[in-house]
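subagent[fold] <- orchestrator: predict structure for attached chain, return tokens only, no commentary.
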Amino acid sequence: MVHVLSSRVLLRPADPERTRAFYRDDLGLEVYREFGTGPERGTVFFLGGGFLEVSGRLEPGAPPASPAARLWLQVGDVAAAHRELAARGVPVVREPLREPWGLVEMWIRDPDGTDVCVVEVPADHPLRHRP
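subagent[fold] -> orchestrator:
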């Protein structure tokens, strides 16, 4: 098996500044590092155990992100996240709901249409316990 040292999700938005503002200001992600200038400028955000890089630009006329491309962000309290994000004007696609598999999920969408699942793993969920 390949030994993976680090990973990140890369987004190529139609409007990089708008997307940077969404993840920085609306979601409140902390900046890990920034690089480049002008249209080549990139921002890498902390994303739990990984990173989210916003750099480059979606090519004009390119189709939007595949519906199979989604982000999954685990939080401690999805109801509190819902209140905070809704107050910031973040588009909530679906309000928090406990799923049949036991997770509490809320769905939001970034400015380029990338779906983001904000999820809480309840204390009684099997993901919280090792066998």
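orchestrator: received. Logging for downstream: The chain is about 15% helix and 35% strand. The first strand starts at residue 8 and ends at 11.
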